[in-house]
Structures are given as structure tokens and as C-alpha cells.
Write a structure and sequence with these properties.
Order of helices and strands of chain A: HEEEEEEEEE
Number of strands of chain B: 8
Distance between the termini of chain B: 39 Å
Number of strands of chain A: 9
Shape of chain A: elongated
Shape of chain B: elongated
Radius of gyration of chain A: 20 Å
Structural class of chain B: mainly beta
Largest interface: A-B, 34 and 29 residues
Radius of gyration of chain B: 16 Å
Oligomer: heterodimer
Strand order of the largest sheet of chain B: 2-8-7-4-5
Largest sheet of chain B: 5 strands, mixed
Largest sheet of chain A: 6 strands, mixed
Number of helices of chain A: 1
Strand content of chain A: 35-45%
Helix content of chain B: under 10%
Chain lengths: ~150, ~110
């Protein structure tokens, strides 16, 4: 075969781009699936509805190491109208689990704030499980300038 | 990590039935288990994996923590106060040690 320098360079670049693309697609896909699986496990195979729960996160996070997030759920927090737990997930992190809050009647309100790590720009999902079995979720996209998972 | 120092902010007093806000912070490096050191070895995971808040023995708030929580984990949550008493806060480390703090509240 008679490879010119130009041809050879073009080929390698193409192959590299393809490999990179393929890798990105599969890794993103696997995580979205994993996130979905975790939501189903948490909710008992119930599809979450929209509403009731509000997730507050910054639109752009300059530093992925500490991203402040708040979650609050509308609830009287007594009797059957009680939020049992809220799970926070990050689709694009190496491991989508972030934290799970458990509330009781003594909580007074179902709201909590914490700071989390985000590896890259991605969706953050909050899922709330009520005592009566209903499940609600909210999703926010956070743009990350510097990732926060090391490596 | 023996030098993990908890800091908790609870109002000194509240009205009966009032919902108060509690803020907690504990110093901890929260090593995620994803990072590598200079030699390319993975630094083992070392995080606080559970946080609980109790009021006079009854659970108020609990959190299962995964490595995606930032270093020096911070939590803000609410509690409904009916009577005077003591809040107890507990953090559980991956290495099995626990860190605790207590705060009293008056009701007027």
C-alpha cells in the first residue's frame, strides 16, 4: 500500500474521533440507565410524577466540587400526608447516587440543603417518596465549568 | 479522621410548634474513591456515610450519604419544636467511628 503522510494523518484523526465518540455515547448511556434503575428501585417500580417537589440548583456551577442544592416538597408532614424520603441523583457522575434524605413528622417541613460534587455538565434529579406511596420528581440541568470528581 | 470537628447551629429558643432551621457542618475530606495519587494508585474511599438528627430520642432527620457529597459535608434542614429538649447529631464515618454533638433548645 502506498500511504501518503496526509492520508495517514487523516485516517488516524478520524479513527480517534470515532473511538472518542463511541466511548462518550456508551458511558453517558450506561449512566442514564443506571439512574433510571435506581429511581425504579427507590420508588418500587412506580413512574414519578411531576409536581410537589422543587429542586433548586444553580444554572451554572463554576466549581463542580461544591454545588449547593436544595430540595423541598409540599406536604403537611402529618398523618398520611408525609414525605418519607427524597433521593438526589446526578446522571453524569461516575456513580449517580448523591444522597437520600429521610424525614419524619418531627421534621416539620420536607426541605433540606446540602453541597454536592458534579463531574461535568449534567442533569440533577430529585425523587420524593410519600407515605401513601406516590412518587414525585424534579430535574435540573447544571452547567459545570470545572469538574469535581478528581482524576 | 480523628480531627473531624462538627459545628451545629440551632436557635437558642423557639415558640411551641415552631418550625426551626438547623445548620450542620463537619470537617471531613470526603475522599470519593475516584481520585488517583501521583503514582496512579486509586486513593481509597473515606467518607461520612450517614448523618442523623434526633430530638429526645426521636428521629428528626436522617441522610444516607454517597461520595458525591462535597468535602466538609453541610446540611440544612428543619425541625418542629413542641417542647424544650436536646437535639443530638451523629455522623458515621466509613472507618466505623462516629462524631456527635448536642444542642439544647428552650421553648417559651
Amino acid at each position: 500500500m502506498n500511504f501518503t503522510r496526509r492520508k495517514a494523518l487523516g485516517l488516524t484523526a478520524g479513527a480517534a474521533a470515532l473511538a472518542l465518540n463511541g466511548f462518550k455515547m456508551t458511558s453517558a448511556f450506561a449512566n442514564a440507565e443506571d439512574t433510571e434503575k435506581r429511581i425504579m428501585e427507590f420508588s418500587g417500580s412506580k413512574k414519578p410524577e411531576a409536581g410537589k417537589i422543587t429542586l433548586t440548583a444553580p444554572e451554572i456551577a463554576e466549581n463542580g466540587n461544591t454545588v449547593p442544592i436544595s430540595v423541598s416538597v409540599e406536604s403537611a408532614m402529618t398523618g398520611d400526608d408525609l414525605v418519607e424520603s427524597v433521593m438526589i441523583l446526578a446522571e453524569g457522575n461516575p456513580n449517580p447516587a448523591v444522597a437520600t434524605f429521610h424525614f419524619t413528622e418531627l421534621s416539620g417541613q420536607a426541605s433540606a440543603t446540602t453541597r454536592m460534587r458534579l463531574a461535568k455538565t449534567q442533569n440533577v434529579i430529585a425523587v420524593a417518596k410519600m407515605k401513601d406511596g406516590s412518587v414525585f420528581s424534579d430535574i435540573k440541568q447544571v452547567k459545570v465549568t470545572i469538574g469535581g470528581c478528581g482524576g | 479522621m480523628a480531627d473531624s470537628k462538627p459545628r451545629v447551629k440551632v436557635p437558642k429558643s423557639a415558640k411551641a410548634g415552631e418550625v426551626i432551621t438547623i445548620k450542620t457542618l463537619i470537617s471531613h475530606k470526603m475522599e470519593s474513591g475516584q481520585r488517583k495519587d501521583k503514582a496512579g494508585q486509586i486513593i481509597p474511599r473515606s467518607i461520612i456515610n450517614k448523618f442523623t438528627c434526633e430530638f429526645e430520642g426521636a428521629k428528626v432527620f436522617e441522610c444516607d450519604i454517597d461520595p458525591a457529597i462535597s468535602a466538609n459535608p453541610f446540611f440544612e434542614f428543619t425541625a418542629k419544636v413542641e417542647k424544650a429538649g436536646t437535639f443530638k447529631f451523629t455522623w458515621v464515618d466509613d472507618d466505623g467511628s462516629t462524631y456527635t454533638d448536642e444542642k439544647k433548645i428552650e421553648v417559651n
